[in-house]
Amino acid sequence: MSENNYPEAKLWDMIEDIRVAMLTTKRGELLESRPMSAYVDLSEHCLWFITALDSGKTDEIGEGEAVNLAFVDKDDQNYISLTGHARVVRDVAKQKQLWNAFAEAWMPEGPEGPNVGLIRVDPIEATYWDAPSSRVVMAWKIAKANVTQTPPNAGEVRKVGLG
């Protein structure tokens, strides 16, 4: 991968590895988050989520609303905050392509069910934090920082423009 593509390629790899995001939408004046399984689509430069069409999040998203996706891998100390525009889509072919046992457990009517749809998120930008250490090593770095009064090296932090 070229140096110019490194941050974006690394971001997509991290998302694929973590897979579950907290999808945050706006509900009136409040924010609401819920866990969702993300499917990376590099060919369309977007993320897909299988959803029930009658859920509150689909009303909150509507057509092109801003959302945030937060990905956390606490074991590897990797974190992502991604901002994008979301829209609700009904595409049975895409639903069949993404369908899996996890989706089936939540929506037993299958990918062609009348209440099954997708959320498409077109990313605008993301920030990732990639700590090169395990939790044990990071705890040692924090203890050392407290003794030396020098902040620890928390790893790579990158803001990636996507839109």
From TrEMBL:
Coiled coil: none
Domain General stress protein FMN-binding split barrel, residue spans: 9-152
UniProt cross-references to Gene3D superfamilies, sorted A to Z: Electron Transport, Fmn-binding Protein, Chain A
Protein name: Pyridoxamine 5'-phosphate oxidase family protein
Organism phylogeny: Bacteria, Pseudomonadati, Pseudomonadota, Alphaproteobacteria, Sphingomonadales
